[in-house]
Design goal:
single chain, alpha/beta, Rossmann fold, Fumarate Reductase Iron-sulfur Protein, Chain B, domain 2, 3 domains, six-stranded parallel beta sheet, four-stranded mixed beta sheet, 23 helices
Length: 441
């Protein structure tokens, strides 16, 4: 066990937790705000076809282009086609989990196009060859000493630089990229149906530079990010900031409604929005998982999850880690290969309790487990074990036939990998029936 890794993770999560408690004080009636936010997302997802078409109509009228992508392959191919059209060999990227989901950087690299992460945390992770560790804080598991060592090894700067000095190094390197890149790529925190707008929320200003200097702006956004109106942002922006980082409002909040207009001094000459499905309709069509599409990617459920706090983000082996990631990943990708994530939960309900839009996360984790049984996905040994357990538990005489020694041996052998490997063996001495009889002679 890497105790130093756990120390860094615990330290950083606690900092966020303390900040969130302070941030919540800005709301006069937080519970009403959360209920309203959930109801708006419910209305949107239940009428998603209508709002998607409304967004497309408004965005095209603003001079933009809309591309519909059924999966990551189609989205990546669309980006490549745009890059080839503009003869670019370099793109700059603002922080975007959806581009991680479709592995855009790797795809572009294979096609001889350099993709540069401009968010400081993402830049650190890219230099280290690692995916993001956390939905909101990509390099949460790294200390300032880790980053100084990385910059020394990868960029050749002096070792033991301070955080301020490290930031200046990153700024110098990245600002050169903004000027030379022809294409800027972002995600989108919200899509506004009524005005055809893409909202990008960030704290470093890199999102604005990514969308201002390059001639082309490509926003890749999941179809679930829609909300009906710009008027709804006065609720969602503070909720996202508070539950994500503990801020009252994020530093930079931008709305893009298309390419640069005649009276505007900066912005792209062309703007594209790629509306990505990539398995999202699988979640939407099942009424038991549809609620997962209300998620605003604040990361709050990760920060309170006892499993995440112990194993960290990379252990999940998925783009979206933590409780919400464990819910959606099996449906976004191969269910059989990823449903084990839904078992990485104590079902304590802390994720549901903290969610700003009141998503029943632990309930859907339980539902995924139920689907595992219904789809007969569990392996033979597990299925057999549970059938034997059920048979024994429903027949008292069968339990009485087995001696304590036999019970101990069966449990310690059957659950050798899941229990005994990390804990002491279980040794049965007396059954509940025997104990009850002794106490009530």
């Amino acid at each position: 066990m890497d105790m130093e890794h756990k120390r860094k993770l615990s330290f950083n999560i606690q900092k966020y937790s303390d900040a969130v408690v302070r941030g919540k004080t800005q709301f006069s009636d937080l519970e009403s705000g959360r209920k309203k936010a959930k109801n708006i997302k419910w209305k949107t997802i239940e009428n998603l076809d209508k709002y998607l078409l409304e967004f497309e109509k408004q965005f095209i009228e603003n001079g933009g282009h809309v591309i519909w992508a059924r999966d990551g392959k189609e989205a990546n191919e669309a980006v490549l086609e745009i890059c080839k059209k503009h003869n670019t060999t370099q793109v700059v990227k603002s922080k975007s989990m959806v581009t991680e989901e479709i592995h855009l950087n790797d795809f572009l690299e294979k096609n001889q196009i350099e993709s540069v992460e401009t968010d400081l945390g993402e830049y650190i992770q890219q230099l280290d060859g690692e995916p993001p560790y956390h939905i909101v804080t990509p390099a949460m598991h790294k200390s300032k000493e880790d980053v100084a060592k990385l910059f020394h090894e990868k960029l050749g700067v002096e070792p033991h630089l301070t955080p301020n000095e490290l930031t200046l190094v990153a700024r110098k390197n990245l600002r050169e990229k903004y000027v030379t890149a022809q294409v800027g790529v972002t995600g989108g925190n919200f899509l506004l149906a009524d005005i055809g707008g893409v909202c990008v929320t960030e704290n470093e200003g890199n999102g604005r530079l990514t969308t201002s200097f390059p001639k082309v702006h490509i926003a890749i956004v999941g179809i679930e990010k829609l909300i009906p109106s710009i008027e709804d942002l006065n609720l969602y922006w503070p909720l996202l900031a508070t539950y994500g980082t503990g801020q009252k409002i994020t530093v930079y909040n931008s709305i893009f409604t298309g390419p640069k207009k005649q009276n505007e001094i900066d912005g792209p000459q062309e703007m594209y929005v790629i509306l990505l499905d990539n398995g999202r309709t699988n979640l939407i069509k099942d009424v038991n998982t549809r609620e997962a599409m209300y998620c605003i990617r604040c990361g709050a459920c990760l920060n309170v999850c006892p499993v995440y706090k112990n194993i960290g983000g990379h252990t999940y082996g998925a783009t979206y880690s933590g409780p919400i990631g464990s819910v959606i990943t099996p449906h976004l990708k191969d269910f059989k290969e990823n449903v084990h994530l839904s078992y990485a939960s104590s079902l304590c309900g802390a994720c549901t309790e903290t969610c700003p839009v009141k998503i029943n996360i632990h309930g859907m984790l339980h539902y995924n487990r139920t689907l595992t049984v219904k789809k007969n996905i569990a392996d033979f040994s597990e299925s057999t074990s549970w059938k034997m357990w059920r048979l024994a538990m429903t027949h008292r005489k069968l339990i009485d036939l087995a001696s304590d020694k036999m019970k101990s041996k069966v449990v310690n052998v059957l659950f050798k990998e899941s229990w005994v490997k990390r804990r002491a063996e279980i040794n049965f001495n007396k059954s509940f029936k025997q104990l009850f009889a002794e106490r009530h002679k």
